[in-house]
Structures are given as C-alpha cells and as structure tokens.
C-alpha cells in the first residue's frame, strides 16, 4: 500500500438497481452510495434517488452505479443535490454509470450537476445500452468552480466520456478532457463556467429536433436516426436554466409525462 493511501481513506460506493414493469426486482448498495425511493406524483413512474451519503468526493474516491430496466419497465432516476468534487492531493475521483434499458422500457436518468472545486480531479464515464423500442432521456452537467462563492476552477483536471449502444451496436461516443487552460482558451470553453449535455434515444427522436433547437438556441443535433443531442455552454446559471427548461419539455413531448422537473430538483 502506498503511503498516501494509508494516510487518506478512500470511499468506494456501489449501487445496482433492477426494475421490472411491476417495480423493483433487485437492489444492491454499498456505502456511501445509497438509493432512496420517493413517492411518485400522479402520472409519474417509479422514482429513485442516488445519494452519496459522504456529501462529496475527494481525490481517489470512486462511485459506481448500474441501472437496469427490464422490458416494459418505467423509471426516473435522479439525485437530491449537486455532486461536489473536492480539491485533490493528487488522485482522481471516479464516477461510473452503466445503464441498460430493455425493449419497450423508458428510463429518465437525470442527475443534477457535478461541481468541481478548485483543485478537483474527476474521471466520469457513462455507458448506456438501449434496446429496440426503448427510450432513454438523460442529462449530465459540470460546473467549473464554486461560482456562487466567487471561486473558479483554476487547478485540476476533468475527463468525461459517454458511450451509447442502440440495438446492440455502438451508436455514439463522446469524450472530453479539460484543465484550467482549456477552460479559458478561446478555441475551447472560452471562459465558460459550466457545460451540459442532454440526449434522447427514442425511435421517433427526429420529431423533436425543432423543439430541441428552440430549447438550446440551435445547439441540438440528430447525429443518427433515433438519437437527439442537446448541448449547453455558458454561465452556471444559464446552463442549469437551459437544462431545467429542456427536461419538462422533452419528457412531455417524447414520453407523454407531466411537463415538470423531478421533484428533488426543486426541493
């Protein structure tokens, strides 16, 4: 064991949730990652909240979640608050999410933003497998610094990666590597405080392209049939406002659900 590992305890949380048409089929969790199940509002599917009971992630910590929906299942998975990434003494914090959406199922994966404190190091990777006739509405966002406190993210590094499989084949992959220089460079983020991504994997995704363009000021694309992407870049407030407007609009248009945010986003 390295001296640094002996000095600093690392958190390694895990959660696995399997949902069928009738509700929860299997549940496994290991602290500090927990799953809570708020009572859904009328017209809403089963709700699950991923909770990091440690309150944040330090360098070397790792959280892993696996979400599996059986054919025909319906669910919404979110988080009760932003995920905080604390300054690191060297190691990188790891977030891993694996998603499986069975045939005819629909999953809304809508975590709130991750906030990088100055000096934080993050490696976040999400992999999703969406079966024929299934739907996935997902978002992720990243805030570069504790903006409300006047703290910018000037030290550290962040890596983000998405891999989406449709009908058993890799349909889209995205990767991003950031440091403070990239944040400020005119050819990179040009000083933006935050960035965000939403995706809709749906058999009729193309029907919602114009809505997505309106929601993002044109920053939406249809890279292949059945996949709609929305991107957000700007101040932390503008990115959150964009995502909180897009979620109700898309879940109503694509899923026929109430045009509302997850309740935990507004508590």
Write the layout of secondary structure elements.
Layout: H1 3-7, E1 12-20, E2 23-30, E3 33-36, E4 46-52, E5 62-69, E6 74-78, E7 83-85, E8 93-101, E9 106-110, E10 114-116, E11 121-130, E12 135-144, E13 157-166, E14 169-179, H2 180-184, E15 194-201, H3 209-216, E16 220-224, E17 227-234, H4 236-255
Parallel strand pairs: 1-5, 4-6, 5-8, 6-9, 7-10, 8-11, 9-12, 10-12, 11-13
Antiparallel strand pairs: 1-2, 3-4, 12-15, 13-14, 15-17, 16-17
Write up this protein.
This protein has 267 residues and is mostly beta strands. The protein has one domain (3-265). It contains 4 helices and 17 strands. Strands 3, 4, 6, 7, 9, 10, 12, 15, 16 and 17 form a 10-stranded mixed β-sheet that branches. A 7-stranded mixed β-sheet has the order 2-1-5-8-11-13-14. Strand 16 and strand 17 (227-234) form a beta hairpin. Helix 3 (209-216) packs antiparallel against helix 4 (236-255). The protein is globular. 40% of the residues are buried. One of its GO terms (molecular function) is nickel cation binding. Required for maturation of urease via the functional incorporation of the urease nickel metallocenter.
